[in-house]
Structure of RNA polymerase sigma-54 factor:
Amino acid sequence: MEMNFVQRQTQGLAMTAKMQASLRILQMSHIDLTAHLAEQALENPCLEVTLPEALPPLPKGLGGGARDPDWDPVAALEGEKPSLYAHVGRQIALAFPHPAAQRVALAFAEALEPTGWLGASVETVARAAGVPVPVAESVLARLQQFEPAGLFARNLAECLRLQAADKGLLTWELSVILDNLALLAEGRIDDLAELCDGTPADVRAALVAIRGLDPKPGLAFAAPDMAILPPDLRLARGKDGWQVELNRSVLPALRVTAGPGTAGDAAARAWVSSARSRARWLVRAVERRQATLLLTAEFLVRHQTAFLEAGPAALRPLSTEEAAAELGLHPSTVSRAVAHRMIETPRGTLPLKAFFSRAFTPGSGADGPSQDALIALVGRIVAAEDPVRPLSDADIVRRAEAEGARLARRTVAKYRDLLGIPSSYDRRGRAA
């Protein structure tokens, strides 16, 4: 067998170190960016960084003093308890794979108090998430199944009831006692016994079970040591329509300085010149990051005006590929720009990813409805039904078709499941 060696010349795009660093900066949150810039300022005498006043404390060693040389990051991670919000967030990501239901679940998570109770009514959360109250209640019912039991309770009685049910202790008598905790607080054991059709001894036995429950399950987690992070962008309606601006209160101020004197030392002068060049590049990279973020947000607001004014039902199909084509960017750049970015709007603080939605029919583009809009439609139809005569999936298909949306019964069943809405048979049982 004869072997030949052939040389071939091709053209391709290689990712330089600066391009990779620029992409990392684009993907950083404002907290990570500030920590990164503070770290760079420690190494570069030509870079001056002014931290924003609203910034939570940086990790020790990033503009906050020297780190203990014996500090073990792995051991520290193992020893720290997770925060309540991190714990709940992980469960939400697993329990609500669809963005529409996940948005509602995250709205409930934002309303959580450190005790694990809800600090807002279901109606308030539903209004903030832009969904009907029955849909929000269905999402809340799933959230109340999270571990540990008792999270997302609206009051003490509900918190204790969730825990008692989880432990298999919830009898009819205990449920009556939990509904009348005021009598228990006043020591009216005989009145409670009469309500339970039992004896005072039965009430005292139930009281022992109640004392074994945790009235504030959220306190078992690490206390949050910083406030909820402020949004990266702000949106307001002006005279010329919606106006997007960067939230500059969370951004560090950068300045390139001349650096230390070199006193005629050629090697020192070359080193300072190189440091100044790195500082200028870093400033330009941050400016490109802010410009790309603002450009992408303006595109999303421009194409999803109806969503901002009418809610999820008006969300039009929009993909990162469409955004990239119009903005002259690569789709991966758009994905990096919107990842973990929040925008403050009159409808509440939303992730930028909430402005994207797939078309219900692939390839239909903006001409067809989005999946999120159809999911919201199913939720709206169920919310308006007669509780005594709940609609079957076939009925929902006909109602949706009357509004111009063609759905299959299996699609309706899938969307019901995403919204946490039981079948018509189970809904009829609840109404009874």
Remarks:
- Residues 175 and 225 are 37 Å apart (CA to CA).
- Residues 55-79 have pLDDT under 50 and may be disordered.
- Residues 233-357 form one domain.
- The first strand starts at residue 47 and ends at 50.
